[in-house]
Design brief:
Blueprint: H1 3-14, E1 17-20, E2 25-28, E3 31-35, E4 46-51, H2 56-59, E5 67-71, E6 74-75, H3 81-87, E7 95-101, E8 108-113, E9 115-118, E10 121-122, H4 124-130, E11 140-152, E12 164-166, H5 175-191, E13 195-196, E14 203-213, E15 230-234, E16 239-243, E17 257-267, E18 275-285, H6 291-303, E19 313-326, E20 329-332, E21 335-342, H7 347-350, E22 358-362, E23 365-366, H8 371-384, H9 412-420, E24 446-452, E25 455-461, E26 464-473
Parallel strand pairs: 12-13, 12-14
Antiparallel strand pairs: 1-2, 2-9, 3-4, 5-6, 5-7, 7-8, 10-20, 11-18, 11-19, 14-17, 15-16, 17-18, 19-26, 20-21, 22-23, 22-24, 24-25
Length: about 475
């Protein structure tokens, strides 16, 4: 099996999956969890770390950070970690009934259906990740770290007991800036399920910030300092943004400015005045920067670790962004031209495509190739089309590949021509045919040449563009 496609299969297996029938069938619930060791959120119980987009778990309303209180009525705190895994994958059950709790809400029940398939079946979602160099603009996984310090109370107090908060207005000279910062924080706490109130709030929220010249700055020539470009994820713009900060490895004396932003949540309900949770951001800069811009990007990132804290310093984030054409076809890895299954209510199913059909061509690209041949041709495509990429967009992806670049907008025609070359057997570029660099016509329609027994037919499928963004702590 080609290495490119193998990596996609391993991704599926790692995403909350369980083997059945001697390992021939893989079932998933659509979420990844870990057993909490936090005295403040879900101690000894599963906490959801990732929800697979478009999965049954997402459809059931499971969200990142949920605590699983019970599985089919059995309290999670009463069983071992191994028993939890067994309860989630009872062979005789096609679904599980989870009792879950989110921040700011009471317990609720979610019925999650198991999604099962053979281990040699690969989905379009997995293939989109495997062949993402066709379209880094829409599909890439990136990592970054933020110089945050997170502190929580040493008391064993459940943050789930706090439902309301108040952010008092600032009376400082910088109250206009404070109002902007507090507005971003207010939106974030509300999104997490807490309720703002002025009537006996459970939590008092305090913010503080400054941007000052560094008194220890030595005046080092900026041109002599090796300053790698720093990126952070901006939730408000759904993308990675370049920011003018220095690397955390930079000696402080080389920074002309120092920026700090602190968020503090203070108990007003159980032990008034007790600091429950605090996150402090400290940045080094070689020039001025607006506090408002910093808050827009970083307040949501700072709040990711409330109520569940995994890291206390230099918080590592992984951002997965993916948009691809979904037809509903699932492929047989051992014989890539064979359709293993077709999702019900999908564009391919509506067009008449069925399991067992053989795909002779997708567009003008033949499908009678092995996984190894597809992977090898894809790697040749990457190497030989590097000249069509824009060096100004260079970045390193989460897999450590340092030559990631978007396509040069002036070279879209050349990219499209390269995709059509038979030598690159780029049949799976259809996953990105909604983009101008894969498809110059702008008509997002896929034509599959299907063989069914002795019958051959051209089937036109109008795919749905599926888009997903995940931000995780890893």
């Amino acid at each position: 099996m080609g290495k490119v496609i193998v990596s996609a299969v391993l991704f599926f297996v790692s995403a909350a999956c369980f083997a059945q029938n001697g390992g021939n069938i893989i079932c998933r619930l659509g979420f990844v969890y870990e057993i909490s060791r936090s005295a403040n959120w879900g101690m000894g119980k599963p906490v959801v770390g990732h929800v697979v987009p478009y999965s049954s778990a997402e459809l059931a309303g499971i969200v990142q950070g949920d605590v699983i209180e019970a599985i089919d009525g059995i309290p999670a705190a009463s069983v071992s970690e191994g028993e939890i895994a067994q309860l989630l994958n009872l062979a005789e059950n096609n679904e599980v009934l989870l009792t879950v709790r989110s921040l700011g809400t009471q317990e609720r029940q979610a019925r999650v259906r198991k999604e099962c398939k053979r281990v040699n079946v690969i989905s379009e979602d997995q293939l989109a990740s495997a062949f993402n160099m066709y379209s880094l603009e829409t599909t890439a996984e990136r990592q970054f770290a933020c110089p945050f310090k997170v502190t929580v109370t040493t008391d064993s107090v459940d943050f789930g007991n706090f439902f309301t908060y108040i952010i008092p207005p600032s009376n400082r000279d910088d109250r206009e800036q404070a109002a902007v910062v507090n507005n971003y924080l207010d939106k974030e706490l509300t999104r997490k399920g807490l309720t703002a109130t002025a009537n006996n709030p459970d939590i008092l929220v305090q913010t503080s910030f400054f941007l000052n010249r560094n008194p220890n700055f030595k005046g080092t020539n900026r041109l002599l300092i090796d300053k790698p470009q720093i990126f952070r994820y901006d939730f408000s713009r759904n993308g990675m943004e370049a920011v003018p900060f220095l690397s955390p490895l930079t000696v402080e004396s080389e920074a002309e400015y120092i920026l700090q932003l602190r968020i503090r949540l203070i108990d007003q309900k159980l032990v008034p005045g007790r600091i429950l949770w605090e996150c402090e951001a400290n940045e080094l800069l070689d020039g001025p920067y607006r506090i408002e811009d910093y808050a827009r990007i970083h307040v949501p990132l700072m709040c990711v670790q409330y109520p569940y804290v995994k890291f206390t310093r230099n918080i590592p984030f992984t951002v997965g962004k993916k948009s691809y054409n979904y037809t509903g076809i699932q492929y047989d890895i051992d014989r890539m031209e064979r359709i293993a299954s077709v999702d019900r209510n999908s564009p391919a199913y509506a067009a008449g495509v069925r399991a067992g059909d053989v795909i002779e061509r997708i567009g003008n690209q033949r499908m009678n190739h092995t996984a190894e041949e597809f992977s090898a041709a894809y790697k040749r495509f990457i190497t030989q089309t590097m000249k069509y990429r824009d060096p100004k967009t260079l970045f390193t992806d989460a897999n450590g590949f340092k030559r990631c670049m978007y396509w040069d907008t002036s070279k879209y025609a050349e990219v499209s021509d390269a995709v059509d070359e038979a030598a690159f057997i780029s049949a799976f570029s259809y996953l990105y045919s909604f983009t101008p660099y894969m498809n110059q016509s702008g008509n997002n329609v896929c034509v599959f040449r299907i063989k069914r027994g002795r019958e051959k037919m051209d089937v036109t499928i109008r795919p749905i563009v599926r888009s997903e963004i995940t931000v995780e702590l890893k």
